[in-house]
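#help-structures

NK: newbie question. if I give both the sequence and a SMILES, will the prediction place the ligand too? trying with zinc ion
OV: yes, paste both and it writes out the complex. here, I ran yours:
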Amino acid sequence: MGPNVIADQLSATSYQLFSDYHTHPQGHRVQRYTQTLLQPWADSARNLGLSDIAFTDHDRYHAGISFDELDRLRERNPDLRIRAGIELDNDPICSRAGRSWIEKHWDKLDFVLGSIHFLDCPNQMFDSVPDGAAQFEACDIDAMYADYFGRVREIAATGLVDCLAHLDLIKIHGHRPLAEIGSLVSETLDFIRVRNLAIELSTAGWRKPVNEAYPGDRIIELAIEKGIAFTTASDAHSHAQLGHNFPILAQRMASFGIQQVCVFEKHTRTHLQL
Ligand SMILES: [Zn+2]
Ligand SMILES: [Zn+2]
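OV: that's the protein plus ligand as structure tokens.
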């Protein structure tokens, strides 16, 4: 498909995305959930025309999450669907406690994201910018991709996640494999499909050195072929980032013919038409 055809389709689209399923009210530290912390997110959602948002703070900050405060927020904002979620990752130090917390609170959670933020280096997230890029120096990038996707399959296999976050995060610093990406990711997509998990369409990569949304075009094509469901996501770490670049994401989805997104309530997935 040539760029002119895509441009025609882009101008023809009028999608209004309505859900953001990757947000971090606590940012990068433990902050107790309060109405003061959370209400600005509800206000931002309303201002953007979003009607369904999931809070998915990192599992290492689970001590800040309060289901009672989420209930109060829902009462104060009855026009919004506000989902209790969390982002579980593979932190070699913290994620054991995170998994236990998720198991304990599974019935109160609507949605769990699964993420890979760590490769071999136990005290450095590979996706931190710019420090994480040092792990890629003088490395076999294809082998790192294969290792990364193996870890994605591991977190998908825990049975504790509903959706995989930023599926090709490994590209964050701009390192590209020599092998065709489809051959590296296909097994992982099959694995996700068999477990009936969703993946997110995230705008966060547009804010990173790679300057490309997650996941890349080829992965989206394969996911569509395999019948994998999508959420929409900003990975906002501030309420000002909620729904970041969603109009461009909507155009991108239209160019792939994606007309449905999924939302979650108590881990039950519903597909909604755009
Ligand atoms: Zn993440
Ligand atoms: Zn995140």
